[in-house]
Fold this sequence. Notes:
Strand order of the largest sheet: 1-2
Number of helices: 1
Order of helices and strands: HEE
Amino acid sequence: MSGKHPIIQSIEQAQMKQDVPAFGAGDTVVVQVKVKEGDRERLQAYEG
């Protein structure tokens, strides 16, 4: 059992992408995170 509430699990499943690209060890990926600063939003990219 994952320990999460069933309602939270169903919300997470509904928001998850179904077509995740394949990647493995040694690949470089870029992840963008939406950051809220006051009343502004921006995307912060992390690469590794």
